[in-house]
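Problem: given the chain below (168 residues), write out its structure.
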Amino acid sequence: MLVVRDEAFDAWRARHAGRGVGRTDSSVMTLDHLRAHAAWGGPDAWDRYSYAHVRVLVDRTDGFCQQIINEKSCVPPAEVAGFIDRSLDHYINQTYRALKCMGQGLPSAAQLDRQRGSPLLDAIFALNGGRLRPFYKYLAWELADHPLSAGHALALRAPSCWSRAPEL
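Solution.
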């Protein structure tokens, strides 16, 4: 990623269009683009994990680019508890739906509901210092190189979704 001044953006983007080194992607953006891309709650928030473990090699912004990247690489601290609650609520709902489908003799539908288990992974990673769930192709690498640690887990409390769990 190359972050450039607004007035240099078009020239740099044209120069680096479609370039990548080896198996990496190359992108050019302005500081405003960097701030806006993958903003929490935004349409491309799904891409926040792309910033995990990124280190700025040359930074002429006195560390501001690295600060933005660091903030994007995790769940915002003020959002962690709510994010975990929503993730667990989603996971419990999917599990309930899968069980219901099994009880109704719909194993294919149950399998599809069970495969939507990423909310549980979202919650597990967020419990570890607000980390983001990696893209699935990086999950094994992430767990090997950056294992989950119980020492970083938040104090567990009953999520708000438990109070409205339906009877099975």
